[in-house]
Automatic annotation (TrEMBL):
Superkingdom: Bacteria
TM stretches of this protein: none
PROSITE patterns referenced in this protein's UniProt entry, alphabetically: PROKAR_LIPOPROTEIN
ABC transporter substrate-binding protein PnrA-like domain boundaries: 41-320
Annotated CDD domains: PBP1_BMP-like (cd19963)
InterPro entries cross-referenced by the UniProt entry: ABC-Purine-Binding, Peripla_BP_I, PnrA-like
Keywords: Signal
Source organism: Clostridium magnum DSM 2767
Protein name according to UniProt: Purine-binding protein
Alphabetical list of Pfam families matching this protein: Bmp (PF02608)
Signal peptide: 1-20
One cellular-component annotation, GO: plasma membrane
Amino acid sequence: MKKIASLFLVLILAFGTLLTGCQSSSNQTKSTDKSSDSKKLKIGFLYVGPVGDGGWTYSHDAGRKYLEKELGVTTIYKESVKEDTAEVQKVIEDMINQGVNVVIGTSFGFMDGMEKAAKKHPDVKFMHCSGYKTAENMSTYFGRMYEARYLSGIVAGMKTKTNKIGFVAAYEIPEVIGGIDSFALGVQSVNPNAVVKVAWTHTWYDPAKEKEAAKALLDQGADVITQHQDTAGPQQAAEERGAFSIGYNTDMRDKAPKAYMTAPVWNWGPYYVKQIKAIQDGTWKSESYFGEMKDGIFDLAELTANAPEGAKEAVEKAKADILSGKNKVFQGEIKDQTGAVKVPAGQVMTDKEILNIDWLVQGVEGQIKK
């Protein structure tokens, strides 16, 4: 009888163990399913500057915060990441080890590092701002900021009294060159006698150096300063000299209130929400997004009282023409600095040509080091 009871007890224990094993397996599967659930996302942002730069990085971080608020997703970020392939890869690996499954890189110089990381981690989604390399799990995104640059050029062209406008520029890459050209075309549309003088800093974030570059342009007679930089240094230099300024990336009126007139500004939040929703819905696909002003990804900030009389009306008319497609900005005839026709009358530059532009339009003073 004891033997039968013992055998029965063994059978019960064995059956209990089997049940326990099944439950463990079930829980493990459930946990795995949760971790692979597309709605359980953790997004990592790589920034080229500090979030407090008030410009480029600040605008992306505002987009990150908007994303968190709208979708309730978890995000992390790393600021002041060097534009070095090995460094970018290291930061991405650290993020992935923290559970990140979507990586967003916000500077052109992150491109090669992100491409390598994307190949190594096919299960992670990558989005790169302003680059041109894509993969099945890596998109690129940017906006036709040249449209807003053109509008800001109208303001500058109407404001200048010396017909000399200074442009503090970062690097000789298409993104910056195209911005200079479109700005100059906007200037020339209202003031064909004005010239745009360029000073290169080879920095994205160096307030002191960028301010000094603006001072040099002011010394050459410029009475309006604009920029493709991440700080308000150039505008502060303008204010100190009694000149006027046009910012970039964000509305910087509080940084130089006596000089600031307007700025082409970014609005990344809605784009980030749209992309993350697509990942959650399983509809996301790699693409090369080149947004237009009508998409809401960028715009020209409201003009201040420092802007010239009649500028608001001129900007509104030009903006309406851009939104309707009547004004393509880069439409011929356009000549380069040597006087050679680069875009014949009646023709419009293609997106590929704009994204690879390496020449300055007639009326711009400054050289591109290649």
